[in-house]
Amino acid sequence: MMSNHSSATEFCLLGFPGSQELHHILFAVFFLFYSVTIMGNTVIIVIICVDKHLHSPMYFFLGHLSAVEMLITSIVVPVMLWGLLLHGMQTISLAACVAQLFMYLALGTTEFALLGVMAVDRYVAVCNPLRYNTIMNSQTCISVVIGSWVFGFLSEIWPVYATFQFTFCKSNVLDHFFCDRGQLLKLSCDDTVFTEFVLFLMAVFIIIGSLVPTIVSYTYIISTILKIPTASGRRKAFSTCASHFTFVVIGYGSCLFLYVKPKQTQAAEYNKIVSLLIFVLTPFLNPFIFTLRNDKVQQALRDGVKNCCQLLKD
């Protein structure tokens, strides 16, 4: 316990319970997931940059989404992996905690903005194909991507600032594997109710605000696809949206459970499980979701492997 008049200058992360042997098993599993995440998303970014057949708005947005996924998981997972190797509690400085909280919140907000943009892109492609190239021109695509990144980072400045205006004098032990805002607020000696409510409203605005265009877009998309007379035509139209829709369900579902709650300080065990979905599972699934159901990406991968083999033979 800490003095009532002092605030923590560093925090101890409890991480995962269990024996050292269990920690080593978790380390191996999470390291595998993290390695596949980095390699898979890197491959997606590289083939989108290299293959001219993927130089379209859909893949331009996908490249940025893959970059965001890599950054989000790299903000949290390496710290978690290091904690699993330590025998005692892991410590993190106040400055590092502020940076980690800001980065993952900013990147998460950027991801939601990009998912909303990708939904609108699919709406234009399916419902207004003749004007697709005119509407989704290069200038529009670059502008909305820059806007998504800027909005993501600017929108999280005040929430992080407000979080660290409190005095953390109850303890400096965080029952988590990273600097989670809900667990930080538990350590405050101040009244956090009003700030938690404001943070809840901001989470609703960001998550629901980007979810609304996604829902509206897919309502029109489904309606348009059902009007296509042939089964092959319906299947082809839906295949262009299936990957994005799957990712939306997984990404929004886990974040709605974690952040859109009036009370930010929910149970630590629940918090850890949902956080694993966000920082480990979702980024891990991203390359598979966008490659296994996408013929163009699969063809680009085959061409890339074929070109590499030819270079090695030469």
UniProtKB/TrEMBL annotation:
Stored Pfam families: 7tm_4 (PF13853)
Subcellular location: Cell membrane
Membrane topology: Multi-pass membrane protein
Annotated PROSITE patterns: G_PROTEIN_RECEP_F1_1, G_PROTEIN_RECEP_F1_2
UniProt keyword annotations, A-Z: Cell membrane, G-protein coupled receptor, Membrane, Olfaction, Receptor, Sensory transduction, Transducer, Transmembrane, Transmembrane helix
GO MF annotations, alphabetized: G protein-coupled receptor activity; olfactory receptor activity
InterPro entries: GPCR_Rhodpsn (IPR000276), GPCR_Rhodpsn_7TM (IPR017452), Olfact_rcpt (IPR000725), Olfact_rcpt_6C-like (IPR047132)
Membrane-crossing segments per the record: 25-50, 62-86, 92-120, 141-161, 197-221, 242-261, 273-292
Domain G-protein coupled receptors family 1 profile per the UniProt entry, residue ranges: 40-290
Keyword Amino-acid biosynthesis applies: no
SUPFAM superfamilies (UniProt xref): Family A G protein-coupled receptor-like
One GO cellular component term: plasma membrane
Function, as annotated: Putative odorant or sperm cell receptor.
Protein name as it appears in the record: Olfactory receptor
